[in-house]
Amino acid sequence: NAGVMQNPRHLVRRRGQEARLRCSPMKGHSHVYWYRQLPEEGLKFMVYLQKENIIDESGMPKERFSAEFPKEGPSILRIQQVVRGDSAAYFCASSPKGQGGTEAFFGQGTRLTVV
Amino acid sequence: GESVGLHLPTLSVQEGDNSIINCAYSNSASDYFIWYKQESGKGPQFIIDIRSNMDKRQGQRVTVLLNKTVKHLSLQIAATQPGDSAVYFCAENGAFGGTYKYIFGTGTRLKVLA
């Protein structure tokens, strides 16, 4: 059973370009969480999705950021018109249920660098 | 609560000594807690979990203590080894603003001295 897969592992974008980060949850997991991590800092919640639904996006910036988790395929975190401040590691985690009480498994992250 | 703009505190311990890493959580209604270990360049990795109906849980070389009265978690690592060097995060799982999600604490960097 493959773990949570994130790609690309490293992504370099110029200011103003778009960044697309992909996350394939573990098999059988229908709940996905995205987190952002700056160097030497903790993980900051961004968004929680179930298949075809955004459950909680309270941690997402109001502009330029969006997320989806379609019925088929990976979850996508999309950042439009990237700025230098978007440079960070973005992690996704998946869990089999959303009511809690189960471990969330993490991917290896995508490190976004905006130049 | 969530760490925003805070740099990681560091705990340095001698190899072979016991380590104690502390975490304050924010939501008194959180009912499930996890400790994660994050090595450089990698994603967080599960170490041990505990539910709110327990005060203590032991694993291999690790023990988690939960004090719900003061909303405090600790992770104890026995006979700390160089491979334990990493950043450790606690996560609380509960209803925040109406939805269940995992919220992470600030994190602590553990440095094991030879």
How does the SSE layout of this entry go?
The complex is a heterodimer of chains A (115) and B (114).
Chain A: E1 5-7, E2 10-13, E3 19-24, E4 31-37, E5 43-50, E6 53-56, E7 65-68, E8 75-79, E9 88-95, E10 105-106, E11 110-114
Parallel strand pairs in A: 2-11
Antiparallel strand pairs in A: 1-3, 3-8, 4-5, 4-9, 5-6, 7-8, 9-10, 9-11
Chain B: E1 10-14, E2 19-24, E3 32-38, E4 45-51, E5 56-58, E6 62-67, E7 72-77, E8 86-96, E9 99-104, E10 108-113
Parallel strand pairs in B: 1-10
Antiparallel strand pairs in B: 2-7, 3-4, 3-8, 5-6, 6-7, 8-9, 8-10
How would you describe the overall organization of this protein?
The complex is a heterodimer of chains A (115) and B (114). In chain A, 0% of the residues lie in helices and 49% in strands. With 115 residues, chain A is mainly beta. In chain A, the strands form 2 sheets. In chain A, strands 2, 4, 5, 6, 9, 10 and 11 form a 7-stranded mixed β-sheet that branches. A 4-stranded antiparallel β-sheet of chain A has the order 1-3-8-7, with no helix packed on it. Chain B is mainly β. In chain B, strand 6 and strand 7 form a beta hairpin. In chain B, strands 1, 3, 4, 8, 9 and 10 form a 6-stranded mixed β-sheet that branches. Chain B has a 4-stranded antiparallel β-sheet with strand order 2-7-6-5, with no helix packed on it. The A-B interface holds A 4, 6, 33, 35, 40-45, 48, 55-56, 58, 91, 93, 98-109 and B 2-8, 31-32, 34, 36, 42-46, 49, 51, 89, 91, 93-94, 96-107.
Give a quick rundown of the structure:
The complex is a heterodimer of chains A (115) and B (114). Chain A has 115 residues and is mainly β.
The residue-averaged pLDDT of chain A reads 93
Structural class call of chain A reads mainly beta
How much is the radius of gyration of chain A in Å?
13 Å
Structural class of chain B: mainly beta
Count of DSSP helices of chain B? 0
Give the helices and strands of chain A as they follow along the chain: EEEEEEEEEEE
Distance between the termini of chain A: 36 Å
The percent range for strand residues of chain A is over 45%
Q: Report the count of strand segments of chain A.
A: 11
